[in-house]
What does this fold into?
Amino acid sequence: MVKMVKRASRAELSLGRGPAKGRARRAGPPPANNRASKQTIRCENVARILEAAEAVFATKGFSGATTAEIATRAGIPKPNLHYYFRTKQALYRAVLDDILALWLDATASIVAEAEPADALRRYIEAKMAYSRTRPFASKVFANELLHGAPAVKGFLGGAMKRLVDDKAKVIEGWITAGRIAPIDPYHLFFVLWAATQTYADFDCQIAAVLGKKKLGPTDFDRAGETVATLILRGLRLKV
Amino acid sequence: MVKMVKRASRAELSLGRGPAKGRARRAGPPPANNRASKQTIRCENVARILEAAEAVFATKGFSGATTAEIATRAGIPKPNLHYYFRTKQALYRAVLDDILALWLDATASIVAEAEPADALRRYIEAKMAYSRTRPFASKVFANELLHGAPAVKGFLGGAMKRLVDDKAKVIEGWITAGRIAPIDPYHLFFVLWAATQTYADFDCQIAAVLGKKKLGPTDFDRAGETVATLILRGLRLKV
DNA sequence: GACCATCTTGACCATTTGGTCAAGATAGCA
DNA sequence: TGCTATCTTGACCAAATGGTCAAGATGGTC
It folds into this structure.
């Protein structure tokens, strides 16, 4: 329920010119040898392309990214990239699909039974870890939103809205039970997202203001600590 | 000291092919008639182009924006745009210069003598107002940061860093004086920026999650109230 | 080994787009 | 009324880029 699109089906959607039609890629025993089987080739190439694409889309934006650069970064010729992903748009969608799944996962800790302080702290940690370890993913998503979310509007108003509605109810429950101070649950989430993702999306600004070349693990630790402190105190919880 | 570049000098930097060299545009008496003088023409056209460019850069990004679209939106032919701004890059820089000035202004309320709660609340209001009234500006800036700030890296590590160093000292003073609870002043600012700008930069996400078509004034009010509440409580201040 | 589906790649093309040019229009001034 | 500097614009160009093609290579299977 959390994973939007499974890897296999995502790849399926973006298949190239002559991919296995029908019920190819059966679940049967994998080829005995561990050398490049057809299946492995496709998997590896798709993965390599997606990784390269995420990086290039993150740093250049959709329009600024060129399929040539993505192909080079993936270590393959451009026509080969277009074999796996017919169009730049399709490749972009595939990259986004990966990211959306990630995005939803982080809320796992927000459940009614949890201790609010623990749950929120864990959520902040998770989002902050995501900013540290997957900055490109965060940037691609940010870029998409910045330009009006043409490709993920449906997701935002659908799966994401439902998830947040859900989690907002949990927060409201905590408020009603007097476990945290009153706050608008939706805007609480918006602030949490903003405060954590800013360290991925706008890292260069933060680094520059801190007088560093790049953000290091200690910066992220300190950031997470600060955000958690502000939020927990902001909800009148023991820090 | 707050305004980075004054309008006049900014225009100067981006002059087109054959603009008044030397000490043109003297401060002397303006042309008697209030009809289109040469000076007025330039001013109006530059302003119209900058406005159009801000909107297009905001919605399309730098690479996605075309000078043709900007020109159309400004109501002039493309070569005319290139007469005032030699290159797309120069136009982009001019748009950014405008934005950077705006950016710095908002911190005015953060001064040692102020009441922390008032000062912070006012700062949040100011940033939130900026998100509501100048969403395009915020988005252009966000986009620039997202892509590594190629055009404003100098500003970030220079004027902005100095300003924040300054304001961080004010915050530290408040902490030392026991007027607010301890917090990392830099990260406090990062959270404040993120929490307020998110309403401009990622408005479509917030609107979608709230189940609205667009964010209205009441949404911004509620957002500002929530952010202020969280932050003030987070610093153990009376809300 | 032969046949097929999948994968690879150099060469190529149509479109988009930033930017130019040169001729003409317009304001300001003596 | 000329004369100059500034402004305007249709036509045009070179480069970049998304995407295609067709021929060849490679793994899988009988």
Remarks:
- Residues 38-64 of chain B form the longest helix (27 residues).
- The two ends of chain B are 33 Å apart (CA to CA).
